[in-house]
From TrEMBL:
GO terms for cellular component: plasma membrane. It comes from the Bacteria. InterPro entries: Plipid/glycerol_acylTrfase (IPR002123). Residues 57-176 form the Phospholipid/glycerol acyltransferase domain. Keywords: Acyltransferase, Transferase. Residues 1-20 are annotated as: Disordered. It comes from Microbacterium foliorum. Residues 1-15 have a biased composition (Polar residues). The keyword Nucleotide-binding does not apply. Pfam families: Acyltransferase (PF01553). The keyword Ribonucleoprotein does not apply. This is Bifunctional protein Aas. SUPFAM superfamilies: Glycerol-3-phosphate (1)-acyltransferase. GO terms for biological process: phosphatidic acid biosynthetic process.
Length: 259
C-alpha cells in the first residue's frame, strides 16, 4: 500500500479514453462529475499505480454504502463499469430521465437482478465487458454491510476472473458509510473517504473456473486482500437476508457454494 496521494487535476490518456460503447452521458460524467466529486469530497486515494492502464481488469471491493459505486469510478485512473438494477433506468418523466442519465454518466449498466437466469445474464454482461478490454467493479459480499464488518465473499467474482483471465484489483473503501449511511437520501459533506487500490491478483494458480475448490480458494484470496486494505472486522459469515419460511431456512443451513 502506498502513501496517500493528492488528487490530480490532470487526467492521463487512460482516464480520458472512454469505452467503445460510451454515450454522451458517460463522457459527460467522466469529464464533469469525476473532477467535481474529487474537488468537493477530496477523497484520499492510495495505490492508483497498482491499476493496469489497459486491458481487462476486475475491481473487487468491500461494500458499505450506495456511493461505493460512485467512489470507485471517481478514484480509479481509468473508466470503470458496474451493474445496477434495471429499475434505475426504467423510470418515466423527468425523474426517470434524470435517474437513467445519472447512472449512465457514472458507468452503470442496467441488469435485472435475481437468481438463476438473471444471475447468469449478469455474468454474461460482465464477461462481455472484460472481453472488450474494459474494467468492471464488483462486490464479492453480494450486498452492503449494514454493521461495518467484512463478510465472506461469494464465488461469482472468482469465477469471472478464472474464466476470463482478467487480473483482480482489490479495493478497500473506508468512510463511505459515514458519508452516506444506509437509508440516507443525500451524502454529507462533512466526511472524507479513503479509496485504496491493492496490487493486482493473478488467480490462475488456483485452477480452472469449473472447479468449486478453485473458486472458493480464489475468493478467499480476494477477500483477504480486501481485508488488508479496509481493516474491517471480519464477520466470518455470508451477508444474506434472514431466511423466510422453512424451506429457505433449510437451504441456508445446508452447505453450498454462495455465488
Amino acid at each position: 500500500m502506498t502513501s496517500e496521494q493528492s488528487v490530480e487535476p490532470a487526467t492521463s490518456p487512460a482516464e480520458t479514453q472512454g469505452p467503445r460503447h460510451a454515450g454522451f452521458a458517460y463522457r459527460l460524467g467522466r469529464g464533469l462529475i469525476t473532477p467535481l466529486a474529487r474537488t468537493i469530497y477530496r477523497p484520499r486515494i492510495e495505490g492508483r499505480e497498482n491499476v493496469p492502464q489497459d486491458g481487462p481488469v476486475i475491481f473487487a471491493s468491500n461494500h458499505l454504502s450506495f456511493i461505493d459505486s460512485i467512489a470507485i469510478p471517481v478514484a480509479a485512473p481509468r473508466p470503470v463499469h458496474f451493474l445496477a438494477k434495471s429499475t434505475y433506468f426504467e423510470g418515466t418523466g423527468m425523474k426517470g430521465w434524470l435517474s437513467k442519465t445519472f447512472f449512465e454518466s457514472i458507468g452503470a449498466i442496467s441488469v435485472r437482478r435475481g437468481a438463476g437466469k438473471a444471475a447468469l445474464d449478469a455474468l454474461d454482461v460482465q464477461r462481455q465487458l472484460l472481453d472488450e478490454g474494459l474494467a468492471v467493479a464488483l462486490y464479492p459480499e453480494g450486498t452492503r454491510s449494514t454493521d461495518g464488518r467484512l463478510y465472506k465473499g461469494r464465488t461469482g467474482v472468482a469465477f469471472l476472473a478464472l474464466q476470463t483471465g482478467a487480473p483482480v484489483v482489490p479495493v478497500g473503501l473506508i468512510g463511505t458509510d459515514k458519508v452516506m449511511p444506509v437509508g440516507a437520501k443525500v451524502p454529507t459533506l462533512s466526511e472524507r473517504i479513503t479509496v485504496r487500490f491493492g496490487e493486482p491478483l493473478d488467480l490462475s494458480p488456483h485452477g480452472a473456473a469449473t472447479s468449486g475448490r478453485a473458486r472458493r480458494l480464489a475468493t478467499d484470496e480476494i477477500m483477504a486482500a480486501i481485508h488488508a486494505l479496509s481493516g474491517q472486522e471480519l464477520a466470518d459469515a455470508f451477508n444474506e437476508a434472514p431466511a423466510q419460511g422453512t424451506i429457505e431456512k433449510i437451504k441456508q443451513a445446508l452447505p453450498h457454494e454462495r455465488r
